[in-house]
Amino acid sequence: MKIKDLKKLGEFGLIREIQQRVGTAAHLVKGIGDDCAIQFQREGWELLTSTDLLVEGVHFNRQWISMEELGRKSAAVNISDIAAMGGQPKSLFLAVACPIEIPVTELEQFITGFLAVAEEHGAILAGGDTCRSLGPLLISVTVQGEVETGCAICRDGAKVGDAIYVSGTLGDSAVALTDFLAGRNPEEALLQRHNRPEAKVVLGRQLANGKLASAMLDVSDGLLSDLGHILEESGVGAEVELSSLPLSEPFRRRLQEAPELIDLALTGGEDYELLLTSPHQGLSEMAFEGGKLTKVGAICRQPGLNIRQADGSLYRCSRGGFDHFS
Amino acid sequence: MKIKDLKKLGEFGLIREIQQRVGTAAHLVKGIGDDCAIQFQREGWELLTSTDLLVEGVHFNRQWISMEELGRKSAAVNISDIAAMGGQPKSLFLAVACPIEIPVTELEQFITGFLAVAEEHGAILAGGDTCRSLGPLLISVTVQGEVETGCAICRDGAKVGDAIYVSGTLGDSAVALTDFLAGRNPEEALLQRHNRPEAKVVLGRQLANGKLASAMLDVSDGLLSDLGHILEESGVGAEVELSSLPLSEPFRRRLQEAPELIDLALTGGEDYELLLTSPHQGLSEMAFEGGKLTKVGAICRQPGLNIRQADGSLYRCSRGGFDHFS
After folding, report:
1. Residue ranges, CATH 3.30.1330.10, chain A
2. Cβ-contact A90, A145 below 8 angstroms
3. Which residues of chain B does CATH 3.90.650.10 include?
4. What does the pLDDT look like over A233-249, one tens digit per residue?
5. A34 contacts in chain B (CB < 8 Å)
6. Global pTM?
7. 20 to 30 A Cα–Cα from A43, which one of A16, A200, A325, B299?
8. How many CB atoms lie within 10 A of CB A136?
């Protein structure tokens, strides 16, 4: 962009600059630049929609993440909700309230990151809104996706006897955040997990197409909190085996110094891994293009969520899940 | 709600409370409570989507509007974008970043207003997001609607010779805002226009179904600015007759005291009236269920936007349209 000052560029100038960087998509009749985006509808597919807020000082700190990564993360965490239903992301809507002092070049980096992640998943930026903010930087993203009719994987389908699986590893993002909060720089691998989370779209699609999951969501508030949603919606209980939690090498190293960090694998947010239940007991051994699954427990009739240690005793976690108002 | 403190109610408590107040809709497979809302798609209709940000201190001041009215307005201004395409609103997504000190009862009033307007237009709250805000109250609304395939009225269809029409009256909302900014209380009729704007959905549907408009949008940034969008997108110019602008009785009274207020009818935002162009020259005489249209000018070949006074001379407006970053 040639104009460096947001005030000089203006609202409509900014929208035009963004519009010029966005391509076209077969499903999109009309994108940025009118009162609404217009999209085709097609039978045989259901429309999925999710909206997320990211607020400076609550969800992110600009000292800890580059604007490009923030753009990437804003798109990825929202697309992750489509992955969590087994859907294919199609369109994104981006609303930004921007402090006037943020240089246009930084906004450009934000858009670069946002559009890169959208493109990686075959989705297009189809609309949005901009205004100034007198306080923090605010980002609101709405994603629309599609899933074959009747194939969406909801939170309410877990059945007694189902195995519980999680993709990837847990707690890495939370360790990075803990480091930042303690004034330390996290090591690169953990930092990447915090600043560049990946939406597990390919894995979600495989699970939906294969009808392999009875319930699913993405781990945004922490394993215990998010599994709690499945249990509540499905009217069942669960037992999780502490020793089975998938942990990364960097996480295991940190655990040796500070064993209490295990609670971050249970309650740390922003993993954006898929958490699912399934009547199939052998998914851990299956090769999925979109990532590996680890069996971490089982659904049981008795309400509540118990964490079992290797010696058979119950583990009591010292932290709750994340609640935005507590 | 029984719990008065947002901190005690918590994020998931708040979502549950809202969920309980929302009904069902035939097009909605699954609403609030999962990673995404799920909706049916149907052939023959196109999907319309628009997103709006409302930021405290930028778009509203809580001293000037009740929380119920703010809820109403948040829904109405977003639904107005569906009306501006000639569409039927179907689903709303509401994201709120809320300062922790706002009492739950006030949030309840906000939701009451929001849901009332949604219901008036046959739309349903299908999802959202909540978090705390360390600064201002932030509201992001995304609306989805439908229009018969090929019938959406865009900004780029204005043709030379088309008449320009606007619904309702212009400038009332801006006069109310001017009063507030000057420390005066606006009179009731003007205040209502500012705090309780109405989305012109019925009128928009009539125009789309009758294929009566070549281009359309809603007046949110002011007549000149918004008409400018149509001219730019359509590659045409326009002439507007100053004496033909539809003005309310309260506005005319104020104009007698302060003739310069006429510029608010040209540039004042937040009217949420429909502004359209049409090859049909007699729409002002037609009776529409959804409101009256007034012919205010014509589309011409020569680029630019001229405002003609009764004596034939050009009028030079002293204010520009609204730009969020200028």
Report:
1. 13-148
2. yes
3. 163-315
4. 999 999 999 999 999 99
5. 85, 154-156, 217, 233
6. 0.94
7. A200
8. 22
Q: Tell me the CATH number of domain B163-315, given options 2.40.10.10, 2.50.20.10, 3.40.1350.10, 3.90.650.10.
A: 3.90.650.10
| Best A155, A325, A326 residue to mutate vs chain B (most B CBs within 10 Å) | A325
Mark the ranges of chain A whose per-residue pLDDT is less than 50.
1
Residue A24: predicted pLDDT: 87
For residue B58, CA distances in Å to B64, B172, B326 come to 13, 19, 12
Eight-state DSSP code of residue A166: E
Candidate from B11, B59, B91 with C-beta closest to A323: B11
Contact criterion met (CB < 8 Å) for B138 and A55: yes
Mean of pLDDT over chain A? 93
Please indicate if any CB of chain A lies within 8 Å of the CB of B257. no
Residue B84 tokens read as 């501006």
Contact between chains at B49 and A91 (C-beta distance less than 8 A): yes
Alpha-helical (H) ranges within chain A are: 6-21, 67-83, 104-120, 172-181, 188-195, 201-209, 223-234, 249-257, 262-267
Q: Which of B47, B55, B156 to mutate to test the interface with A (most CBs of A within 10 A)?
A: B47
Show residues of chain B in contact with A123, CB under 8 Å.
none
Residue ranges in chain B modelled with pLDDT below 70: 1-4, 319-326
**If you count DSSP H runs as helices and E runs as strands, how many of each does chain A have, helices first?**
9, 13
A13-148 belongs to which homologous superfamily?
PurM-like, N-terminal domain (3.30.1330.10)
CB contact under 8 A, B47 and A41: yes
Smallest CA–CA distance, residue A164 to chain B, in Å, is 18
| Residue among A40, A93, A324 minimizing CB distance to B11 | A324
Interface A:B, Cβ pairs < 8 A:
250
Which CATH superfamily does the domain covering B6-148 fall into?
PurM-like, N-terminal domain (3.30.1330.10)
Q: Give the residue among B101, B129, B136, B140 at the shortest CA–CA distance from B18.
A: B129
